[in-house]
Give the backbone structure.
Amino acid sequence: MFCRKISILFFIALSYTQTYPQIGSDETLDIVTWNIENFPKNEQTINYLSEIINDINVDLIALQEIESQNSFEDLISNLNGSWYGYRADDGNWGELSYLINTDNIQITHYPYTILDDYEHFYAYRTPYIVKVQFSNEEFIIINVHYKCCGDGYVEDDYWDEEYRRLIANQYLKDYIDFHFSNENVIILGDFNDDIAEPTTNNVFNDFLFDHLNYIFTDLFIAQGLSSDWSFPNWPSHLDHILITDELFDNISNDSVFTFKIDDYMSGWWEYDNLISDHRPVVINLQFEMTGDINFDGIINVLDVTILINMILNNDFSEIVDLNNDLGLNILDVILLIDLIFS
């Protein structure tokens, strides 16, 4: 009996120390959308989630279906680094939430909801916004969880599920166009519908047709193999990441993917039983950081030292020529110092 207990404890310890891959880096802005079904789904959910999040090295996770405030706080306390958590409300409803790692990004505006007058169309989970700064730029993050279900047809009916998602998209697009027309905007979450459907009943037409200003970064996933989709139980791709044109140059197909955590566990059944029926979707945004001369992801005194040495040695590089005057001089040093303190 004693040996059996030891074996069981050893098995549990192994499962909790499982290693998951790093999907982010200090040089990229790494953002995840993740519907963690009825969190916490299982008494072991917090342990597994904290292990995963501590391993994968990301900056921000937009969450859906966070039901327990106490369990959410327990999860945060289990995370390494400077993680902060926010829920749209503190009730027992499956709330929109954020986990934010401030080791690499700064929160410039704490989370708040928008479009509360139209909560019916958002299934009483109105969009949840947070503003963060990375690489001297501000980003508007909008977390959504649209109404589920339906029959695949948009009907002009106040209670029709597709109609509610259609109107939710229209209100959200109008809001972004008016308030954030020139900002770096990322809209992500569980949209509960397929972006690759024919246009006749596609609830995302307002965004899809405005392709000069918006792109669903995961459209190629929705159009691809079902094995890469975010919702395997009813094979479909429901979790999306939408960006505005200010960020078009910062992505590639390689930088957006469904993170199949079940591949690092005992399979889909274990993941679904312990964590969620949704897989997370990830985006890695890449930036050239002006003033980061040594490419270490930070602008600091080391970059100033390198620049001064280049000036003294009459070296030149367009990357370091901050004022674009085809020379390196004290003006570039002043601009670099200004970047450090800005």
